[in-house]
Write a structure and sequence with these properties.
The structure is a single chain. The chain is 33% helix and 28% strand. It has 245 residues and is α+β, with helices and mostly antiparallel strands. It has a single domain (7-244), classed as Phosphatase 2c, domain 1 (4-Layer Sandwich). A hairpin with a 2-residue loop joins strand 7 (123-128) and strand 8. Helix 1 packs antiparallel against helix 2 (72-93). The longest helix is centred in the middle third of the chain and has 22 residues, at 72-93.
Length: 245
């Protein structure tokens, strides 16, 4: 029996939050090409905004203009490498941007085959059959301590080091992303988000919001509102990708 075709749709909202004077997050997506990206920039002056925008632009360009016959895996690896190099070169060429970098979380879909990649602590979640699961693993100092059993979740939340990430795009000449592979199912919902959401809103609350039967753009707005109501201490970006028959 032939496998039924599936379709994707997406919505996104990005917000400055309540404490920051600018928005250093960036996002982009193309349902037509199956590419969805969220980046959270870092660096003094406007460097964070530059880094995140460069990363989104480069990854989107690389993955929407794929070489004919190139595998999805090869295209993803090339896109991350080129984006990293673009940011690193800009930071080396201009002292104002020295040391800038950005997180990256992206989803690339080719029919039912989905690849999720991340560098840093922006996350991808999968809501499937009413259950929310975090797919990506944060490249952050406290999360790595938790995984090693050296720190509890409550200690991590109070730690003065909780903003320290251990991997970023553009801070070194080479970076290796984590890549996760999935087969998408009708009814799946993928959430790509910056840590401005996850620092303020618990997974259980995110799950409850995503379970409400409302349009994807409304869900994004509800997630951003929840983060702002909880303090809004950072920029907040949410991209929701829905899978349908």
């Amino acid at each position: 029996m032939a496998t039924a075709l599936i379709h994707y749709s997406a919505a996104a909202v990005s917000d400055r939050g309540r404490k920051r004077s600018s928005n250093e997050d960036a996002f982009g997506y193309s349902v037509e090409h199956g590419v969805y990206v969220v980046c959270d920039g870092m660096g003094g002056a406007a460097a964070g905004e530059v880094a995140s925008s460069l990363a989104v632009d480069e990854v989107m360009r690389q993955l929407t203009e794929r070489n004919q016959g190139e595998t999805l895996q090869a295209a993803v690896e090339r896109a991350v490498s080129n984006a990293n190099q673009a940011i690193f070169d800009r930071s080396q060429a201009n002292a104002r941007f020295n040391g800038m970098g950005t997180t990256l979380v992206a989803l690339v879909a080719e029919e039912r085959s989905v690849q999720i990649l991340n560098v840093g602590d922006s996350r991808c979640y999968l809501q499937r059959a009413g259950h929310l699961e975090q797919i990506t693993l944060d490249h952050s100092l406290v999360e790595e301590q938790i995984r090693l059993g050296r720190m509890s979740q409550s200690e991590a939340q109070r730690s003065p080091l909780r903003n320290v990430i251990t991997r970023a795009l553009g801070t070194q000449s080479h970076v290796t992303p984590d890549i996760f592979q999935f087969e998408a199912r009708p009814g799946d919902m993928f959430l790509l988000c910056s840590d401005g959401l996850t620092r303020e809103v618990a997974d259980a609350k995110i799950e409850a919001i995503l379970l409400s039967n409302t349009p994807a753009e409304t869900l994004c707005k509800q997630l951003v509102l929840a983060a702002n109501q909880a303090g809004g201490s950072d920029n907040i970006t949410c991209v929701l990708v829905q899978v349908m028959e």
